[in-house]
Amino acid sequence: MAGARAAWLDDDPAHAAACCCQASVMAAGFEPDDPRRAATAHARALMAPGPGGVESGLTAAFEAWEAAGPWVERMALGIRARSSLFHMRLESKHRGVYPDIARQRCRKMLNAGMALIEAERAARRGDRHSMEAAMARRRDAFGHRESAAAAMAHWLGEPVRGREIDRFAEHPPMARDDEARLYAAALLVPLTLDTDRRRRLNPAM
Fold it and tell me: pTM for the whole thing?
């Protein structure tokens, strides 16, 4: 998926489609409700749509995001270092509070994935109001206070002051846990909301 994203941002749709197809083969080996399957289905709908076309692929991707809830409920949460003695005492006194908060944050990532598909659909039908509303829901899902998500969004190439960047290839994530996999699934699909650019890269869209 990282290769597909990088190729798409480099205006190389043929290579993006090839990478996306390879990612689809890999994703087929994941659990049926793994959110990486949803992200791969979303990317393939845009970069290498099947016989049913882009809309059919987006529908399948949206349903895959909806079905990923059980995966989040059983995902392994990484151990996080606490910044102060206060937080360590709080966690010791209230066992399970921090994991619950972390899992709630992860549940929001599913909404972020679905919101991007809703934004794509709105952009395709020229409904700017609905597109902006969907992107607002996506930002809300990440949360203004979630600095890690904001940093990863910046790093992976979300629009920053009207331009796109892509640092994934230069600095891949250090963590290889379920939380990192979920964030990557929610963030790796490139935005294609620019109508002119989208038609240039894939006229069928």
Answer: 0.75
